[in-house]
Amino acid sequence: MSSRQDIRAFTFRTKAMIASMEHKVRSARRHEFIYWHLASHGVPKSLHCLHLTLAEEYAVNAIARSSLPSPEYVSRLSDPSFYHIVLLTDNVVAASVSITSAIKNSVSPEKMVFHLVTNKKTYTSMHAWFAKFPIKSAVLEVKGLHQYDWSHEVNYGVKVMLEIHHLIWRHAYKNLKEGFNTVGNHERKLKVISPRCISLLNHLRIYAPELFPDLNKIIFLDDDVVVQHDLSSLWQVDLNRKVVGAVFDSGCGLDCCPGRQYKDYFNFSNSFISSNFNEDQCGWLYGMNVFNLEAWRSTNITATYHHWLKFNLHSGLDLWNPGALPPALLAFSGLVHPIHSSWHLASLGYRFPQVGLETFKAAAVLHYSGPAKPWLEIGDPEVRSLWTRHLNYSNEIFRKCKVVE
Description:
This protein is an alpha/beta fold. The chain has helices spanning 2-39, 45-60, 92-104, 120-132, 152-179, 186-190, 200-203, 208-211, 232-235, 262-265, 271-276, 293-296, 301-314, 325-331, 357-362, 381-388, 396-401, and strands at 83-88, 112-118, 139-144, 217-221, 225-227, 244-246, 288-292, 336-338, 344-345, 365-367. The strands form two sheets. The chain has a seven-stranded mixed beta sheet with strand order 3-2-1-4-7-6-8. It has a three-stranded mixed beta sheet with strand order 5-10-9. The chain is globular and about 100 Å long. The model has no long low-confidence stretch (mean pLDDT 89).
């Protein structure tokens, strides 16, 4: 009898010890996951150094202030016979890689015109970089938001848009703090604290017709992309009178890729959302798109976008997760033309992207959407190397600021 009691006591103690160890492991993994996400929001010292050095160059070096583009190429900025590619970014290194990779893989780089829009804070650094180290073959302009002379109506609309996005972000962040201890998809919850969710440059693409009044068509690239194949045939895609060309899936067969359904963007516990939308519907990808600005100007897309923002504001701010895509899915509804999935491979900014080698090779544009941006050191080294190979390791300022080690 005593022997049985000893065995039973030993069993209970062992189970308790295993349960305690499992709890500690789960807790450690959870903390590691949180710290990984927090690390993704930092700006490396090397990038701070780069921007400060370039700003100084702009102040003291006439070459760093030279015209972009040169006067003889200004006419190309509105010439419809060229391929117009747009980036909205405040990251010099990211812009450099996106543009360099696009030119390197272009069949006709002389047909490319890049329109790079940045904010007032980083304008001098961005201008200095591309003035000191000009791109070859293609034409590039660098423009700061402070250089636009918009109407009062547009300025007010941009201000209201950003304010509502800030409110949505704060509401989601408050809910995150209050409910993080509950069981759920913490990856999705932690996304709400990303600075990109409240970045003006990230949201400003909804004003593309106002940003580029002289253009009727553009290819839009996020700054966290690298181009692997020629983009000229993308420019030629017939959008069938739609406003935007976008990839709906990235090689996931007939089903939506994980995290791409409406239930991943919208709050289906809200009665309005659940009664008006299908939670299994696939969302399209933002970050590599073709925009028909001529068709856009004949629609009320931007007004519809603002309508949804205000509706969300008056509905308690919880209709969708923070970010630029959810309201765009609503505003562009019925005006999106699907393009082949090989044009855009997204979600490479996560820790363990489940993508085969052939899919990587086939993708025209690799998009590091997710926390692990390629200029950080927290992503998968193999995936990150597809981006870092486009860095100029011999550049004097890169070496000074230790951008590349």
